[in-house]
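Sequence, please.
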């Protein structure tokens, strides 16, 4: 599971990157957020994860989608070490 702390830090990160307060992050905003968290992925990978996690195909990621994405990336990056 995910710690409440982690969810809260993702939420505050989410809100700081959601500049238009739309409740979702555009691909650009998601990429900024990822690099802020030190999660660097290639453009190809980024396109693939955006596709995978944008479950409603809106072209941007809502908060829950962003949390899922971060969990996935954290899990996959820590398994590589």
């Amino acid at each position: 599971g995910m710690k409440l702390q982690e969810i809260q830090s993702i939420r505050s990160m989410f809100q700081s990157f959601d500049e238009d307060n739309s409740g979702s992050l555009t691909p650009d905003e998601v990429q900024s957020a990822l690099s802020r968290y030190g999660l660097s992925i290639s453009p190809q990978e980024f396109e693939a994860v955006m596709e995978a996690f944008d479950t409603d195909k809106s072209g941007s990621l809502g908060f829950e989608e962003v949390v899922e994405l971060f969990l996935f990336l954290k899990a996959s990056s820590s398994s590589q070490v």
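The chain has four helices and two strands.
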